[in-house]
Amino acid sequence: MYNFGKIDNAFHELMIESLLRKNNSKRKIFTEYLKSLKSNKVLNVQYHVYRNIENINQTDSFKANELVKANISILREYKKEEILQENNKLIKLLGEKYKNKLELSYNKDLMNLHEKIANTISLNNIPQNTNLITEGILNITECIKNKSVLTECSCQDTVIEDEEKVLIPTKILADVAILKFNEEYQDLSEDQRNTLRLMVSGNEEEKKNLQQNITNECIQLIDTKYNNSNTIEEKEVLLKTKNKLMNTKYNPNSYLDEMVKIITLRGDLLS
Question: pTM (2 decimals)?
Answer without folding.
Answer: 0.60
